[in-house]
Each structure stands twice: as structure tokens, then as C-alpha cells.
Amino acid sequence: MNQASSQPSNKMHNIILIGFMGCGKSSVGRELHKSLGYHFIDTDHLIEEQAGKSIPEIFKEDGETAFRDLETGILQQIIQQNTNHHIIATGGGMPIREQNQALLRELGFVVLLSCDAEVIYQRTSRASNRPLLNCEDPLAKINSMLKERLPIYEKSAHIEINTSSLDFNEISCGILESARYHFGSTP
Description:
The protein has helices at about 25-35, 45-50, 55-60, 65-80, 100-105, 115-125, 140-155, 170-185, and strands at about 1-5, 15-20, 40, 85-90, 110-115, 160. By secondary structure, the chain is an alpha/beta fold. It has a single domain (about 1-185), classed as 3-Layer(aba) Sandwich (Rossmann fold), CATH 3.40.50. The relative contact order is 0.23.
């Protein structure tokens, strides 16, 4: 567990989960929802609802840039709605845009869930809804993308937790303790 500066830079009390696909953002988000009673938001689901189509369809029909625009729009909506006391699980590429990094931090306490490439491969190998991994060598693609994205994720997050060998309860407890410290009280 790595912890960066924990001084809150805003008044929004949300826990935002970022990280590569397959690192457990949605599963950990649901666990935190149970523990805290906060509403759970999955930004990918919001995008699919608003677009009226699945993420693979958006990638195929509109392209990755259009999808990234939708991600930025979702973050802006959540902020404009003054969303507070929520658990927010983001798509794996959301922090890629510098604009999104600032928006994520504006929303609250940003937690990077990281994972070893082999574990990500095992967790995602049976999923058909991962358009970026529809290639000949998904493990090589995962390694390449992790190398590119990890510094961006680390720059965006207040804390990093490697989920490779932890269960959801352990991860959730670590996040809750860190969030209490970050916010100076209960999240």
C-alpha cells in the first residue's frame, strides 16, 4: 500500500476507484457500498445507459476518442450534480486524459487498484466486453498498456493498493482506513 499526500483538496467526500481493467474496481466498489452504505456508481454503466449501447459498440461504431469524450462528460456531470458520499468505480482508461485526472481528484479520495499482469489476464480472459484486449496476444497488450498507464494512474491517485493477492474485504478495510485519514474523519 503506497500513500501519497493525504490532504483533502476539496469538500466532496467520495471514494473513487481507478486502475486497469480486471483489478477489481467494480467488485471492491460493491464491497465498499455494503460497508459504508454509500451509493455505488460505475461510470462504464452510466456511459452505456446514456449512449444507449454497450462499450464495445461505442468503440466499434464511434471510436475510442468518442468513448473518452463520454467519460469526461460523465465526470463533469457527477461534479455538477454535487455528488457526495458515493463510491465511484471508473473505466480503466478514464485517467488517461489529463483533464480527467483533475476531475477525479475534485470528486474526492482517489484509490488506485493495481494488479499483476498475469492476474489481470486470468480475470479478463473470458470476458468478451474488453475491446482493447481483442487482439492476438492479450497478455502482451496488458503488459504494454500497464507500462504506459501505471505512471498516469499513480499521478492521479492518493493511494495505491495491489489487489493481486488480497480478498475484497481486506482491500475494502485498507481503503476505509486510508479514507478516514484523508478526510480527517469518517468518509
